[in-house]
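Morning, I've got a small favour to ask if you have a moment. It would help a lot if you went through both lines with me. Thanks so much in advance, here it is.

***
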Amino acid sequence: MESIISKELDMKFPPIVLLKSDKKPENAIGPKAGKGGCVMSFVAQTIAKRKTTYFGREHITCGGISVGFGWGSGMANEDAIDFQASFLSLGVDSAPDQEEYEKKLENLAKPTREMFRHGERIYCDFETAKNGIKSRPVYDEGEYVIFKGLEDLNEEEIPKSVIFTVNPIELTVLIQINSSFRDNNACILTPQASSCQAIGNFVFREAESDDPKPILSPIDFAGRSKMKHFIPNDYMTVSMPWELFLKLEKVSENSVLQTDLWKKFR
């Protein structure tokens, strides 16, 4: 399948899709046995190199990815939530029990230990971080997520998420098309979420809405740092449910893309 929007924009990075499956895909790139890491390096390879990649429950090594791909909350108990909330805010300075937090960092590699000590600072304080964690949409299904180019999508496959990778002009066009059939100004979402959550569980939630919105990301530098080898820094992703993607494709056939104004930017 080819995207009408991508073809019209002559996108450097055509859309990719996220699929859920209980079966590990063949002829796909994934983490080595017993390894995990950040999934965004695999997503970036699909975007830039058009390689099919995958990630499974057995590869989970961080608290965010479980909820990101609909594999439960990723939080075993309240202590785990407190630890994650401390990390996502100001690290040890935010921890309710600073001594206990420091103790949990002792066995981490030095770069990771320092990152956790200072915190990722996605949230300004512990309470805001904790509320953010508890408000994440949680699902629990499937063993694997698979990423592939839209052009490689089989007829029987229905993606859970369609992911555009766009420069500022392409983003402008997507926002224009997405806003053109709405009568309010809340047309695109930027949840305070990790990169995997922005293309995963927050999109899953929008698929359940009567008025689904696209998700703009990545706004976390940890996830973006895993993509920068493959994707230039001035690119963003815009992710959406399958039905919304199909709607944007249809709307694009009679949109700003057919105007003389747009031709000046081609």
Notes: The mean pLDDT is 94. The chain has two domains: 4-63+139-263, 74-134. DSSP finds 13 helices and six strands in the chain.
